[in-house]
Design brief:
It is a single chain. Strands 2-3-4-5-6-7-8-9-10-11 form a ten-stranded antiparallel barrel. It has one domain: Lipocalin (Beta Barrel), CATH 2.40.128.20. The termini are far apart. The chain is built from one helix and eleven strands, in the order αβββββββββββ. The relative contact order is 0.16. It is mainly beta.
Length: 179
């Protein structure tokens, strides 16, 4: 028996393209495949704003039936000096639920212990997902989508049931999957 190489797992997980089973739904998220650099703003309950940078990587996985990302704040080159506050090194898995006609996602951040489950769909030039993180109602959205940039917002529902922005990421493409 040979020793597991790091590439063995990656080769079994990563796919070069979406599965034909997804049909047109693949276009909802195929634009995001690749790497992105981010300017990250986290908004405190007291009105404070903390700004940092990050990196976000997306790939088709599981024979192209799902998309996985890796979200890293601060970016890997700056991780040695990071603190726990606003420290993210987690992953999301997205898959299309044909019965409900929506995307389902699960986010896990082992650094903070946060787990979030959301579902939603593309609405024109925007993707909106709603769900929960612990007992809190949350909404994530991908906005102003283009081939080279987009804005991601993370919101939570306040006590008055209004959506409150907790984080906003301005993203610029740094790598794509085109040959």
């Amino acid at each position: 028996m040979r020793r597991l190489r790091s590439t063995d797992f990656a080769e079994a997980l990563i796919s070069d393209a979406p599965s034909a089973e997804l049909g047109d739904r693949a276009t909802d998220f195929d634009w995001v495949i690749g790497g992105w650099s981010a300017v990250v703003r986290d908004f405190g309950c007291d009105g404070s704003v903390s700004e940092s940078t990050g990196e976000w990587w997306f790939s088709w996985i599981l024979e192209g039936r799902a998309i996985q990302d890796i979200w890293i704040v601060p970016p890997r080159v700056d991780r040695a000096k990071s603190t726990r506050e606003y420290n993210r090194y987690g992953t999301t898995i997205r898959f299309f639920d044909p019965g409900e006609k929506m995307w389902r996602i699960l986010w896990v951040n082992p650094v903070s212990g946060v787990k979030s489950e959301l579902a939603g769909r593309r609405e024109g030039n925007r993707i909106v997902l709603e769900g929960t993180s612990g007992t809190e109602r949350i909404r994530w959205s991908f906005n102003d989508i283009s081939d080279q940039a987009f804005v991601w917002r993370g919101e939570h529902q306040g006590t008055d049931k209004q959506w409150v922005v907790g984080a906003e990421f301005d993203l610029k493409r740094k790598a794509d999957n085109k040959p």
